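Section 5.1 Outputs to date
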Amino acid sequence: MAFRITVLIISEILPLFVLLCGLRFRRGVPYNVLTIISYRTEKSMRSRASWDFAHDLCGRIWVVLGAVTAAVAAAAVTSASFFADAAVGYTAAAVTVSELAAIIISAACVERALGRAFDKNGRRT
């Protein structure tokens, strides 16, 4: 039983972190590029406007993504807990990989939106 609860808690860490970062980005864009938690890519750091745009969009995506993946992780791990411990472990691993894939896809979406909204010098098109 302790193993299953531990796996449930561990599988919720990443989605809750993404949710909290998304809420932080929505509440206020980090002013400095050197902030510990920020969305730093080449496109997002080209100008202040692209920095603000990237954090606003990433924040909106990550709030939804964090909430959805937290619910899916809880449901998947809880439903797998009716089976053997191995099934719980494999389910948690699959959930974590899918969470990471969702984060990478969300970053690709933000980069694509930045490419459409700004030119190579960071000016709005």
